[in-house]
Amino acid sequence: MLDSKIPAGTLDQKWTYYKGHCKLVNPANKRKLEVIVVGTGLAGASAAASLGELGYKVKAFCFQDSPRRAHSIAAQGGINAAKNYQNDGDSVFRLFYDTVKGGDYRAREANVHRLAEVSVNIIDQCVAQGVPFARDYGGLLNNRSFGGTQVKRTFYAAGQTGQQLLIGAYQALERQVALGNVTMHSRHEMLDVVVVDGKARGIICRNLVTGELERHFGHAVLLCTGGYGNVFYLSTNAMGSNVTAAWKAHKKGAYFANPCFTQIHPTCIPVSGDHQSKLTLMSESLRNDGRIWVPKQKGDKRKANDIPEEERDYYLERRYPAFGNLVPRDVASRAAKERCDAGYGVGTTGQAVYLDFKFNLINKYGRAEANKLGIQNPDTETLMRLGKEVVKEEYGNLFDMYEKITGENPYEVPMRIYPAVHYTMGGLWVDYELMTSVKGLYALGEANFSDHGANRLGASALMQGLADGYFVIPYTIGNYLADDIATKPIPTDHPAFAEAEKAAADRIQNLMNIQGKQTVESFHKRLGKIIWDKCGMARSEEGLKEAIRDIQALKKEFWSDVRIPGVIEGMNPELDKAGRVADFIELGELMCRDALDRAESCGGHFREESQTEDGEALRKDDEYAYVAAWQFQGEHQWSLHKEPLTFEIAKPSQRSYK
Amino acid sequence: MEHYTMNLTLKIWRQPNTQSPGRFETYPVSNISSEMSFLEMIDVLNEQLIKDGKEPVAFDHDCREGICGMCSMYINGRPHGPWQNNTTCQLHMRAYQDGDTITIEPWRANSFPVIKDLMVDRSAFDRIIQAGGYISVNTGSAVDANAIAVEKDNADAAFAAAACIGCGACVAACKNSSAMLFVSAKVSHLALLPQGSPERKSRAVNMVAQMDKEGFGACTNTGACEAVCPKGISIENIARLNREYMMAGLSAD
């Protein structure tokens, strides 16, 4: 039975009540308690630093060469907080409400409300650490607007907000390392959780430089290991982002929740060929000024600028006149796919649509500048020139990035864009305290499922990572460890450690023994294609059943024909990758099973069988208002636990953007 | 953009581990698309090496969008290759022509020992940050974010310095293997903000001491670091660090 441990009281009093009543650990006892933190992104670095400050003995792990490189660093747009510095009507309640609604009513109200409450503390903390947020001339903080909201609540540092927040958390972490409260293990990959008497008591990890397996004890283990978007092979995730830690925890008893909830971001630079290794996001903010179109004529090979206005199909404006180019991410992504599948796509691959800035460059910015300068009847050329200057200030770095990758100048020709996998709302099931279904094993940040429902709003991932690490876990872990103060560190020669290490070693040996013909990369690509085609932007019962069969066959082939060069002892990036891809294959099957079970459309999950007459997503609250938490039962076998979702404050309604 | 394919000769530094000596190996790669990124070209080579039963080239990389700071190739005598304000992962093959020979080495600096092939150990940078590259504020004790106004010019300059991605190109480009640009960027970022002011003296002194302890060389103002920095960090920061360091010395107890 799933117990989410939501505290009593009204929604806005639950977190206050919890903090006032949870158990505490006194400072002398904290020094005797060891905590393992895996992953050093926003959630991991903030948790490790905060727990170190409190006096716990922390051991932190990351697979990168430095904790500062975790993929949180790549976040562009910003971080939401209900500060209401703009006096535009924002509040904790509105941030809560927008998040639940944006998540298409598949998130837990109590968790989301807590997130909105602590959002204000995050900004205070980050500024105190020296995070250089954008400021106005008066020296106070600036805000920008993001999708799915009607207020300006997003704090930002140019297009590098993730970097600046992570550097803040990283510096706090390194300060604790210097003080001796945190021991940092970089270039280490977690390969298993060690469970003793039903409680998580440590991890097995591989030193990626020496190849040695190591055993580490902890009174509790925190997984802050990010999302699993790389199951699609191509995504905006970093190359090393993986599901391995979460997946090992899942196989040791942690339930995996809503794995099919993945976010596909509409504006990314499209695939240019088979060699493509990753995809790059172009910020959501561009849709404020860019118009999306494809040619009206199928397979039109003319250059974009040669296609006259009346032969262009501004399909978002046509289908969704009320919201136009600013429909939510899931809707915009599906519409682009529909046009490309129907043969109207552009570019060499036909898998792209245009994002065109010319209209607003001339008519919005150009004219405004001309007015300011008092230029009467300006010609188009003048308007273009004036408009360009403004657009450069707004989006200059993104335009430069686009040009570096594609070699095309987006001021002159429209950007070519296509949807790409960006974020995973699903993850390890956690209760209100962020504890998984294994005692003493926690999941924070993108690695858990808790706050974004079926669709995440822009600028909310950074907020959640830091909320979990700075302001939630320091309280909730105490409530657990208070009962553990008498537990002495378990020596790592305990049979549970030996057994877990042996299992990890055997698996590595098995992988190396295969000595087949196909590379790890080629299997990963094939897995990605199956998931993208059948469990991507649109899913159907038939397709998902096929995908499950295909993935099972792929798994068999992988374990009999993969070729891994090199040796176990010492650095071997191909071996590391093989382990990750093997786990992605298993996760891929579970994603399809979850998508098959959820015969409704909600958020990023679009089931073709569940749509309205005019082709829009149809949510089914009567049957599917639950969190699907999957328990691993053996190869290809899972059992489903349902956590019902009740909405006392934010009452569900069907979304419409027409 | 005109698309073309090319055949190239790669001369790549191969070194099994820190202890063993390394040497250049020559590899041909063919049918490389001008639309590929530089690292995707290396991916093609590695896939080929694996199929041929050889060990692929080890190199650091992660985000492949120019922000994590992990990639670190010294390409034809220049960190991160020929483009300005650019990382290796954002370099694209249209920078090259059919028939080109490209020499690829790891960062060369005693303080960045080679781990394998093109991978180096940059943990010295983490230890420099540990020596004082932070503001000592515990979680929960912050005042309201708008309680202290920060002059916009200072905020912007702090941000420009904070844009450093810690890749180490500055060290690799410097004939003295100096880490002054890296250290000065962090000292500037924090010294320019009122929140960082209370610790500015000890920070400058301690970070410089750690930099010296790690074996990085002295700065002789050649400006090579600035020229190759993928984030355009200015050597004005080095001047600021020198001022901070001197003021700290003058007012020491």
SSE topology:
The complex is a heterodimer of chains A (about 650) and B (about 250).
Chain A (H helix, E strand, L loop, with lengths): L13 H8 L5 H4 L3 E5 L3 H13 L2 E5 L17 E2 L11 H11 L6 H21 L24 E2 L5 H19 L2 E4 L2 E9 L2 E9 L5 E5 L2 E4 L20 H8 L4 E2 L4 E7 L22 E5 L16 E2 L1 H5 L9 H13 L11 E4 L1 H16 L6 H27 L8 E10 L2 E2 L12 E3 L17 H21 L13 H20 L3 E2 H15 L6 H21 E2 L9 H25 L23 H4 L1 E9 L2 E8 L14
Parallel strand pairs in A: 1-2, 1-9, 2-5, 9-17, 18-19
Antiparallel strand pairs in A: 3-4, 6-7, 7-8, 10-16, 10-20, 11-15, 12-13, 12-14, 14-15, 20-21
Helix pairs in contact in A: 3-6, 3-12, 4-5, 5-12, 10-11, 14-15, 14-16, 15-16
Chain B lengths: L4 E10 L8 E11 L4 H14 L22 E2 L2 E2 L21 E5 L8 E3 L2 E2 L2 H8 L21 H11 L6 H5 L6 H12 L8 H14 L10 H5 L7 H15 L3
Parallel strand pairs in B: 1-5
Antiparallel strand pairs in B: 1-2, 3-4, 3-5, 6-7
Helix pairs in contact in B: 2-6, 3-5, 5-6, 5-8, 6-8
Name the descriptors.
heterodimer; A: 658 residues; alpha/beta; Flavocytochrome C3, Chain A, domain 1; Methane Monooxygenase Hydroxylase, Chain G, domain 1; 5-stranded antiparallel β-sheet; 38% helix; B: alpha+beta; Fumarate Reductase Iron-sulfur Protein, Chain B, domain 2; 5-stranded mixed β-sheet; two-stranded antiparallel sheet; 8 helices; elongated
